[in-house]
Amino acid sequence: MDEKKDIVSVEHLEAPELRDAEHASSKPKYKANTQLDDAARLLEEAGGHIEYSMAEMKKVLRRIDFYVCFPMCITYWIQQMDKSSVSYAAVFDLQKHTNLHGTQYSWLSSVVYCAQLVCQPISAYALIVFPVKYWVMFNMTMWSICTICTTACKSFVPLLICRMLLGAFEATIMPSFILITQMWWLRREQSYRTIAYQIANSCAAIFGPLMSYGIGRATERSSTILEYQAIFLFIGAVSLAFVPIVWWLLPNSPTTARFLERNGGRDRLIAIHRLKENNTGTKTSKFKWAQVWETYRDPKTYMWAAMWFCAACPSGGIGAFGGLITKGFGFSTLNTILMQIPTGCIGIVGLLTSIYITNRIKMRWPVLAVVTIFPIAGGVALTQVPRSKPGGLMAAYYVAYVFAVIQPLLVSWCNLNASGTTKRVVTTATMFGALTIGNIVGPQVYFAREAPSYLTGLYVDIACWCILLILIVTMGFYLKYLNRKQEARRVALGFPAGLKDMSIMSHKEAEEYKQELNAKLRAAGMDPDAFNENAFEDLTDFENPHFMSLNVVRPKIGIIYYSMYGHTGALAEAAIRGAEAAGAEVRPYNFQETLPADLVKKIGGGSSLEPKHPIITPEALVELDGFIIGAPTRFGRMPAQVNAFLDSTGAQYAQGSLIGKFAGTFTSSNTQHGGQETTHLNILPYFVHQGIIYVPNGYQFKATGDTATVHGSSPYGASTVAGGDGSFKPSALELEAAEGQGKYFANVVGAYLTGKAAIGK
Ligand SMILES: Cc1cc2nc3c(=O)[nH]c(=O)nc-3n(C[C@H](O)[C@H](O)[C@H](O)COP(=O)(O)O)c2cc1C
């Protein structure tokens, strides 16, 4: 590699306010967790430029892995041990000693997840207020104390309370780890770090039984403490002992981490600068309801949620009852505990093998599908092998335990799937919801009366895995189909075809691929900077390409209308739907009513007196990339209310701030010849004077060319014929034209802006 190539980046760094105008206008609400802003400030202070080689970057990355990923693994391991302590205790007759009956034992597992479900949003909120390290440490201390306190529990209710509190404190893990991961690693590095702490989970399945075995033996004949109590006490004490170690290692943020002080603070700048790539495409930190709506309109959201449920339900069940199932094969208590150890090894070996194969074949879903076949086979065997054959049953149990590999693989598959800040947050929250519900339901289908075979539980688990398998394959093909569609769009826009998924590439592969792609883009006369890496991640065969919008610029489209009787309003709603379907950020507005209210009422009007949307202002108009004006006819022309607003944009005319924006029109008139075309024409001079690009519909919608019935919608734009007395409602054809206009208009503006960004103009 020559010198020049080896330089990772030489970039001008923007101040946050330049990066994100919307962000700049809103003052930071909270004091803590402003790391991103601090990071940008630090870089700015360093002169805005930084050069470093790949070798330097890797060195910093290794240190980050040690100081951040390692303590995260410890924490994850500890929380898993604390959570599983109840299943180890169960093997030592916890139920008998504490008089548990019916589903009470199941509830000791389910309640942890119930508490997590409730507390996860609270914990996520707390993360905005408290520095992440302190929050994690506080919770780790508290859940360790909870585990220790469980020692003293001698009946169901105290046990339940301790477990519930454990769940509440452990709820912090997921949101905190997501935040920490995003704070330290590039998106393509994140899945491997996620997998690292998932492996720590499997380590718990090795150390937990080992510890329990040792404790069991040591306290077998003790008269002061029962084995199950000693397990809670010991595991709780071990977790508490790790608190100072994690405290010492784990930093709060890249801007304050002590381990980055080396090289006169250069390591810190590199660590921060690397992350700049993650911010590309993050336009705003504002919560957007449109994206929430979009998330729940996306069939993938439901498919991912169903997959999470199907993976978590058996995991919750076997997690709690694994020990009891194997004990039922006829092993002694201590042997049962030892028999759990290989499950941890299965998790680790299975995960590493799956990742290796994924990296080799550069596809995720086929690996996940094959992995899912194992637990199905193991589960079926568990129900079929005669109870007299403990060896066969144990083998079947181990095969079924490959299920432990599913969740980590699923995380790294759907992790990068959604883009757009709000959509990402909502998608993640939905996945967590499904995961937690699965974990709650799982133990509930293991009935005490069915011990030791727990057939219902096993049948439910097998059904879940079968559905999961179907969903994985369906999702694999669905993403492929979406990829193909997006590729066609990309090619139509002049971008190169055949983008690859960088998230499963090594640093070297990713760097080489970036160089190759940049060369292709330059050869096609495009600016590579306009194409960011994260966009590729969302576009490939293995990841969800739905959010092409990361590199296709999302236009801000205004639908601005005046409507006295509701007809123009109905067309406007259709246009909004159309523009939203095209992926635009739609901002609906109304024109200010200028007539006195009593007059409007006198002539039978009303809707203009109660505007549904904010009133348009000249400043809001300038914020838009394009807008469609909805103006009903007044004597063949636009209404005075619309004209009054247009006349108030003199300052914008003087500054030329509307030049290059896009506009369209739609209208409504009582009669067929009362202004269906002239109303549009009457607005056109305004566009011409302001330098606005006019987008007419032409004859693309059925209503325009159709003469079978009387209806509106001319080549100028959508319209409706309201009837002589205004009693008609916009027809299906007219609404179709309005919706089509919104979609077409947004696509035209979006393609223009995307092309503009790509050529850097
Ligand atoms: C003062 C005034 C003038 C109008 N002039 C015309 C006209 O020239 N031709 C016509 O067909 N309808 C005319 N109309 C009817 C309106 O265009 C009709 O009420 C409107 O399209 C309904 O739209 P809306 O329900 O969105 O308010 C006029 C209405 C008013 C109040």
Automatic annotation (TrEMBL):
It is a multi-pass membrane protein. Residues 557-745 form the Flavodoxin-like domain. The keyword Transport applies. GO terms for molecular function: FMN binding; NAD(P)H dehydrogenase (quinone) activity; transmembrane transporter activity. The chain crosses the membrane at residues 107-130, 167-186, 195-216, 228-250, 302-325, 337-358, 365-383, 395-413, 425-446, 458-479. Keywords: Membrane, Transmembrane, Transmembrane helix, Transport. One of its GO terms (cellular component) is membrane. InterPro entries: Flavodoxin/NO_synth, Flavoprotein-like_sf, Flavoprotein_WrbA-like, FMN_Rdtase-like_dom, MFS, MFS_trans_sf. It holds the Pfam family FMN_red. It is found in: Membrane. Its main location: membrane. The keyword Cell wall biogenesis/degradation does not apply. Gene3D superfamilies: 3.40.50.360, MFS general substrate transporter like domains. Belongs to the WrbA family. PANTHER family: PERMEASE-RELATED (PTHR43791), TRANSPORTER, PUTATIVE (AFU_ORTHOLOGUE AFUA_1G06550)-RELATED (PTHR43791:SF59). This is Flavodoxin-like domain-containing protein. It comes from Cutaneotrichosporon cavernicola.
